[in-house]
Structures are given as C-alpha cells and as structure tokens.
Design goal:
Largest sheet: none
Number of helices: 3
Radius of gyration: 13 Å
Distance between the termini: 20 Å
Structural class: mainly alpha
Strand content: under 5%
Order of helices and strands: HHH
Oligomer: single chain
Amino acid sequence: MMLGLLLKDMEQKEIEYLLKRELDEILNDLEDPRVNKKLKESMRTRYKRLFKLLCRMCNEKDRTKYMLKTGEKEYR
C-alpha cells in the first residue's frame, strides 16, 4: 500500500526536526552500555523505520549525521 501526503514547507521542517530529535535520542541510547541487548535490538528496528522516513525528507548531507556509527549495522 502506498500513501501520499501533502505538506507545507513549515510542516515538513517540523516533521524533519522531530525525526532528527528522535534519531539523536536513539543513537545516544545505543551507545549507552547500561541498556540491555534486547532493548537495543528494538531500538535499532525503530531507528531503521525513522531513518527511512528521514531519507525521504532531507538531502544526503543532512542525513549522514544520523547514520549508525562504525560497528553498527547501517540502514538505508
């Protein structure tokens, strides 16, 4: 199923901002050694979905900051 969405520029920027904040939080939590492995796996799944959305909304330069670090699987 494919859905379409029309957004105004300001709405797109707001969604982009929310995605970036959420990805920042996930990336920080993935680096935290106190978080258990099962939780990290579900965080990676969420990261994958959100990163794909971000890829549709911004250019490559903006999204490179939110790619997983070396040693982690990168989702594209």
